[in-house]
Structure formats: structure tokens, C-alpha cells
Amino acid sequence: MVEPSELKRRIQAWADELGFTDARVTDTDLSAYEAGFERWLADGHAGTMGFFERHGLMRFHPEELVPGTRRVLMVTRDYLPPESLGPSRVLGDPSLGYVSRYALGRDYHKLVRKRLAQLAKRISDTVGPFTYRAFCDSAPVYETGLAERAGIGWKGKHSLVLNRSGGSWFFLGALFLDIDLPVDEPVEPHCGSCTACLDVCPTGAIVADGVVDARRCISYLTIESAEGIPEELRPLMGNRIYGCDDCQLVCPWNRFARQTNDVDFHARQGLDAPDLVDLFSWDEATFLSRTEGSAIRRIGWRRWRRNLAVALGNLPTGHDRIPAAIAALRAGKGEAGEQVDRHIQWALARLGASG
């Protein structure tokens, strides 16, 4: 029989072989996070994401989600892709669309869970059958708290997990285990007095240290929300069409971030620096084809069109792409439903054109 400390050492070595950057162990006690979550819900910060309330406090009780869970193995996987045109250049060119860097490659949910299942197979080959379940942003699991408890890093003021040697450009994965393993110790937070992420947020969505009001967050507005984007927030979104990375781009700890060597997370379909007018010309079939295997696909073509209309409406006065944008917006009216048409009409008015 393998001693728990030796088994943990082997698991960490296997995780490294499978491409995980870090692998650490925690218990299931997340009780310290419950009160903050309930305040966040009570303040309405979840927006229309009703699943948070439906799942209640389940995310803080791994042993209830998967009965028998005794330990959680938390892993990280770097995703920042090497690119021909970096994020700041894309954000600085209003004719291009900015896609959050995590979504440029293949859908991370399936890829991380698949590797975790492979890791579980190696464990079972050593200890015999055991109960496990792999997660990656795919169930009511409070991955941030588990990562903190495991010593992966600390929750930054932007609410993402930060690591002193890797910044925040990584995915988190969780493997629930019914095996006893030695736990790792949490690390101290190292944000100090820095407020760079709060200061840079385009819509002021970071309302307190570690607290994000989803209703103002561009990631929520462009991905999670199926409603119309509030008009007062549209000009603040610039050319961000799927998610937002501003808080990560200014974080001093991300000077230590590593680019991924995983080709699955490299940019696909030219979405690291796409032309907005070209993207708006995609019909639904093209959208489904070009986003196959991508996390972007789940928002659907209509929400994609809505986001693009807002970005086109934010082209600055006198920009040479305005005539093409106006033509594309006019041609797109009536194709994707009334909600999208309202955003198109707003964009046309912003560009000084009639419908």
C-alpha cells in the first residue's frame, strides 16, 4: 500500500506530465466563504444568473455534491496564447474585436476535465477503484476558495486567483477524491495597496476588494446575459465582444505569467485580432462552423451579433471603417430578432446614420 505522502508526490508528478502547471490538495471546509457569498447574492450582484441562488450553498460543500469526498486536488493549466497581435494592440484598434484570451482556443471545460480523468486513471491504477469526479467551471463548485485553501494562490481584488509565479492567466480544475492525502497550506495575499484592477475596469464593475457586480461586468454582459445590454454601459464596452481582460492586463503579478505551450489553447480562426465588420457578416451557419469546439459557441449567434453591433457603434467619429460598418449594420437588420435590431439601431445612431 502506498503511503499518503508518497501517493501525493506521485499524483503531483503525474499532473505535471499531463500538462498541469500546479497541483495541490485541500480538505472540503469552505464554510468561511458562505457569508460573503450570501451578501453578494443579497446585493443583486449575480444579475440574471439564477443558478447561483438555485444551487444555494452546495458549492461550499463538496462532500454533499459528491458524497464521500474527503480531499480536493486543485490543478492549474496556463492558457495565455502566443499571438501575432497582443491584447493592448487589439484594444487600441477600434475596428478590431477583442475576445477574452481564455476563449481563443478550444473549449477549456472539456479539455481540463479530460486531463483530470486521465490523472484519476493513473491514481486508480495505483490504489485500485475509488470515487472521484472532475470539474472545471462545470458545476456548483467554489473553485476560487478551493484554490485558496490548497495554496494555489490568493483571491485578487478582481476576484480571480493570483499566483506569485504565474499571475492569473490559468484555468482551475478540481478533482474530488475519497482518498486521504496530506493537505497544502494557504498562502498570504499579496495585492497590498494596489488598486490597478479596480481603477482600470471600464464599467466600474469591481465594487469592493474581491467583489464584482456582474450587472456591470463586460464578461457578464457579453457572455452570460441574454438581455439587452444597458444603453449607459454600451459606450464603455469599446470593442470588447466576448469577455474582458482589462483587470488581468494591468495586474503587476501578470508580468510573471507564462504563455501556454498547449496548442489547444492557441488562437483559432483569427479571433485574436478579428475585423468587426467581417465578423458581423457571419450568418448563423458560419458562426456555428467557425466557433465549433470553442467556448464562444455557447452564447449563440444572436448574442454574438448583439455584442458586435455595440462594438461597431463604438467606432470613433471619422474612422475609415464607419461606411463599411453602417452598410453591414443596415444589411443585418431583421436577421437576428428584435433585440439585436434595437442594438443595431443604437449603433447606427451613434455612427450618425439612419436605419
UniProtKB/TrEMBL annotation:
Residue positions of the active site: D137
An example Gene Ontology biological process: tRNA queuosine(34) biosynthetic process
Top-level taxon of the source organism: Bacteria
Keywords: 4Fe-4S, Cobalamin, Cobalt, Cytoplasm, Iron, Iron-sulfur, Metal-binding, Oxidoreductase, Queuosine biosynthesis, tRNA processing
Binding site for [4Fe-4S] cluster 2: C201, C217, C244, C247
EC number: 1.17.99.6
UniProt cofactor note: Binds 2 [4Fe-4S] clusters per monomer.
A Pfam match: QueG_DUF1730
Gene Ontology terms, MF aspect: 4 iron, 4 sulfur cluster binding; cobalamin binding; epoxyqueuosine reductase activity; metal ion binding
Keyword rRNA-binding in record: no
Positions with a binding annotation for cob(II)alamin: R59, D137, V161, L172, S219, C244, D245
SUPFAM superfamilies: 4Fe-4S ferredoxins (SSF54862)
PROSITE patterns: 4FE4S_FER_1, 4FE4S_FER_2
Pathway annotation from the record: tRNA modification; tRNA-queuosine biosynthesis
Cellular component GO terms, alphabetical: cytoplasm
Functional note: Catalyzes the conversion of epoxyqueuosine (oQ) to queuosine (Q), which is a hypermodified base found in the wobble positions of tRNA(Asp), tRNA(Asn), tRNA(His) and tRNA(Tyr).
UniProt xrefs under NCBIfam families: tRNA epoxyqueuosine(34) reductase QueG
Family per similarity comment: Belongs to the QueG family.
Name of the protein this chain belongs to: Epoxyqueuosine reductase
Underlying gene: queG
